[in-house]
Amino acid sequence: MCPMSELISELESVVKAKLQLxxxxxQILEVASLICVQELALEAMQATSRAVFDAWIAVLLVMVxxxxxxxxxxxxKRRKLKMRPKDPMHIDxxxxxxxxxxxxxxxxxxxxxGLSVLKLLTGLSSGEGSAQLKLLAAYCASKAxxxxxxxxxxxxxxxELERTKLRRMALEVEQEAMAWAEQQRQEWPCNAWSxxxxxxxxxx
Length: 204
Ligand SMILES: [Zn+2]
Known about the structure:
Strand order of the largest sheet: 1-4-5
Distance between the termini: 43 Å
Helix content: 55-70%
Number of strands: 6
Order of helices and strands: HHHEEEEEHEHHHHH
Number of helices: 9
Bound molecules: zinc ion
Radius of gyration: 22 Å
Largest sheet: 3 strands, antiparallel
Strand content: 5-15%
Low-confidence stretches: none
Mean pLDDT: 85
Shape: globular
């Protein structure tokens, strides 16, 4: 079993055991109600998603330290890792929009500009969607009008997207794919990409 499947099956059995105990202690009217069970299922899903993204940020913060990013590149002194709790970053992933803390590095010793940890390590900034969601948006938009694509995203993928955003996402797909290919080529010089001829447009 791969590490992810192992983790998921472990989590599932813990969640199941706890939910069973919780429901066993409820009144009959609560247990017999599909609305109550549905509410529990949705809340549990949302909490799990939040936990996944919180864990992600926590791990990224450890990486900042491990990669030596706390050292200011301008004055070589130690930068501070700060958060703006009231200004989270909003990211759209398949099925939901998540708000995650937006940590940033700030040097109190020189005038080096502040730097978003998420931007630095993941390339993401607020309002962005996952590549998978963008592909889906592009696919839906290519099949039908943006209005219909928007409806499709809502009904079948539980994703509420503004029309302009959907349009932007669909248009970004090609650009994103090209940037990704270029990134792969630069980061992994030994892989197959480097052996392929790279057109000039990709470099610019
Ligand atoms: Zn500095």
